[in-house]
Specification:
The chain has about 240 residues and is of the alpha/beta class. The protein has nine helices and nine strands. The strands form three sheets. It has a five-stranded parallel beta sheet. A two-stranded antiparallel ribbon has the order 3-4. The model has no long low-confidence stretch (mean pLDDT about 95).
Length: about 240
């Protein structure tokens, strides 16, 4: 997969590109991740990419032309163009899985008061990472890239992300490491039993219990099998 990020603050991505899983994925040539400075694609001699909004209003608005010129350079038939925007569809694991099937993502980072609305004619979709206000689209671009890159084959072990929280709209089971007891709080006995079949049953039960207690909204989207539905009934009875 190839990901191109277009931003007016490319320096914000320096650590992101060179740390942990993202760096390893690049080193293995599993992904190509490039960050481009939007100011390189403006015809303005002062490299300005924003101006005052028509009709008045506070702040500055990003112009559509620099984005269009950048897309003419980097877009091809395989490209899927995403504007990171608070007006977009809320990003979730299902959307991450969908984007992970694309050959080429181009992520546009808005800033200031947003982008001239005519940008919608040059993109495939708008995506938001949540209903809160951020300074710009750079952090959302990192969030989206990280979530998608993890799903690309061989970036991490498939078993790892299959058991992650939010996979199949369920949270992960509780996990513990040494010491066995800390300030009176003990590791559940089942995890010390060595009975892997029973441990797996406990983990399946706790995935559903964790979700029911912490994120019951996710259960509305989860596709539970009959055994899982019975587990949920027991949990609800014992509340």
């Amino acid at each position: 997969m190839k990901i191109d990020i277009i931003t007016i603050f490319p320096e914000l991505f320096n650590n992101f590109l060179n740390t942990s899983i993202i760096k390893r994925a690049q080193d293995k040539s599993l992904i190509e991740l490039n960050v481009h400075n939007l100011r390189d694609y403006t015809k303005n001699k002062h490299k300005n990419v924003d101006d005052t909004p028509f009709g008045g209003g506070e702040g500055m608005l990003m112009q559509v032309e620099p984005f269009d010129l950048a897309l003419k350079v980097h877009k091809n038939n395989d490209s899927h163009v995403v504007l990171l925007s608070p007006q977009g569809q809320i990003f979730d694991q299902d959307k991450a899985k969908d984007l992970a099937t694309k050959k080429h993502l181009i992520l546009l980072c808005a800033h200031y008061e947003g982008v001239d609305d005519r940008i919608t004619h040059f993109i495939d979709e708008e995506i938001s990472i949540g209903d809160f206000i951020l300074t710009g689209g750079e952090i959302p671009a990192m969030v989206l890239s990280d979530a998608v890159i993890r799903l690309i084959p061989d970036v991490i072990l498939e078993e790892s992300h299959k058991n992650d929280s939010l996979e199949d709209n369920l949270l992960k089971y509780p996990q513990y490491t040494k010491p066995r007891e800390y300030k009176g709080y003990k590791v559940p006995d089942i995890l010390l039993s060595g009975n892997h079949q029973e441990i797996q049953k406990w983990r399946e039960y706790m995935r559903i219990k964790n979700t029911a207690l912490k994120r019951p909204d996710l259960l509305k989207k989860a596709k539970l099998n009959e055994e899982e539905k019975q587990i949920l009934k027991k949990i609800e009875i014992n509340k």
